[in-house]
Here is the input.
Amino acid sequence: MIEQRGLVDGLYDIVQKYADKKAIVTETLSVTYEELYRLSHKYMEYIIEYREKKCVVCVISPRSISLCACVLGIVQAGGSYMLYEPEDLNEVTLRNIAVINPDLVITDQIDLQIGECTVKMQDIESRQYKMMSVRKRKQNDLLYLVNTSGTSTESKTVLVKDKNLLCYLKGYIQAIGVNDSDIVLQQSPVYYDGFAEELFSMLLTGGTVVLAETIKLKNPYIIIRLISEYGITILPSTPLVIEEINRIGQKMSLRAIVSSGDILRKTQIAQLLTWCNVYNMYGLTETTVCATYHKCTAVDEENVPIGRAINGYSLILLDEDGNDAGEMQQGEIYIGGKGVSDGYFSERDNEGKIVTINKKKYFRTGDYAWKDKNGEFHYVGRKDRQIKIRGNRVDLGCIENVVRRVDGIENVASLYYTSKKLMCLF
Here is the structure.
């Protein structure tokens, strides 16, 4: 039903069914589905009045109910969004914003002005609610823009459409078994597409989203306190955080832990597997969050498989000659399906990435894997110099360039040991 109803109609259905249920909870505030919907309409109405056409909106705000309402308002206005928290603003992110040149910037920061079209959240929320009609969205409408490497390095901007996220959400909800009794701790940085997964997977099923300050989400002990306090049932996170929770060894309300963003090892989840379902997922920003899943077991290898394609996606492995790599043979991962985006904001970045194989569109990932006899994929690594640090894509060349700026250093070379998570600079 999610793909058929779409984001706008799907949200309306849930609001009608769960009007008085808590939709979003913070440590100081909460809103019901009806309250969230009304607040989102204030943003929608402002955007529709401000721009007759569908527009790109950059939102700069900490994790908050207002941020979520603003995102929903943009969607209902027929627009698309890109998100940052105030502390994310730096030379790289400001350059990204300038390149995209959004039609409107919405922020809670009183003194922040970007271009000529910056408006404050406080001003929008103080407006009268007019009960305007939402704008109909189409499957091919642009939904959000997201950068592949977060905020720390030069990156490419991916264009994600409604059909891409809807495809992913359908497969994710089915794989994890998301339902209206679930409560998720929103952990992904707002500038990543994981934010869309955590927000919309709950709001389109009648679940609840719990928001916490970003700084608190870096501390496993605080995460455990939040899980206990709010009865969290789904925790999406990275292997490093999950490993710390596993080490602490405390049983909690969780029914599902979802790992992504880096290689997951069985020793990182050994204790968790005795009382909780753990899922290992794999994908790229270009293919909308994740494309595979594996429900972990005690008999998994130390490097946990990335599993098989979720509903709506397909994976193939090709060798260097472009032929099927075959069972148990290593090959490059190509991802197909409706979740695959149309690529990057800059057309030149698409060269060689979006390919057609047997009349179907695939994204060439640059990642290598092999497939076992059960049809499960096992991740091997990359062919370029990209690595993952806490789920963030980082190019070793970018690190070397930063080190070269240090006085007294003429040149530098870097090596990364995946098995030990150790980087050496020479």
